[in-house]
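Ticket closed. Logging final result for DUF3078 domain-containing protein.
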Amino acid sequence: MGKQVCFVSILFLILFSSVPALGQEAIKISELLEDDGDISVRDMSRIDNTVVVADTLDGWDARWSGGLNGAQAAYNNWSQGGTNTISVTASTVFNLKYRYDRFAYALDTNLKYGKARIQNEGTRKTDDRFAINNKFSYLFDNKKWSAFANINFSTQFDKGFNYSVPDTVEPELISKTFAPAYFTQVLGIAFTPVDYFSAQAGMAMKETIIEDTSLSERYGLEAGERFRFEPGYSAAMYFEKELFSNIRLISSVETFTNLQRSISSTDVHFSNEIIGEINNFMNMSFQYVTIYDDDYSKKVQIKQVLSAGVSVTIL
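Final structure:
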């Protein structure tokens, strides 16, 4: 009984000590939602998602995890000011990997959805992602080098709005399910000198689908168009390693250059996430993402989120 009381006490201490940081996350979310971009589209437009299959794997390996992160900030007669905010994000990731001799296959499914309730502003979406990535690989005699083929798909679950409008004007719809949606295919060569780092480059194709034609021009299509095909080439680097005990860094940079456009219009997706494990079920993370995609905006898009929550390994 004493151990249980001690565990509950520590849990409450962790949660209450985290409130100031989580309050900052809520404020950052509020600031992001005032921008002219949809937070889900920022992650969707990436051309590739590097998946590494360890050369020690033999046969199948499946992993499935789910998470629930939250943030809360409350103020009452607080001299420094502040906005009462509650946000919750649910996510699930399923990975399936296979290796036999020189052949390897990896499936990665990433689903995420989050909402925030902000005082005097109502409920708004804070995260939204539906992504499926497939990678086929063939190892050369030097196993650090391989040929690969990727087939990826991404869209979102819910509608996204631009809230940077006058108070008397309804928020502007800027995205929804299959508006946009992206199919991408990449065929190339990968170099994996160590388990935690991989670089790859190859020819790529990118298809953009806009189910709602009222949004076509927002994503670089002609008025009334529902589909666009882009041939090009892609380069990417991926890093994932435990830096310290229970502290892991995941970082990637991905580019896509359309052969029919100037190289200055190259899409760049730079993503970083630091994950700290508090125990087997609780973790804290900081995510920082920058994107340049001039089909959507001439400005660099930035996303940063600090969160804490529960993570459960199902498989």
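Helices lie at 2-33, 39-44. No further action required.
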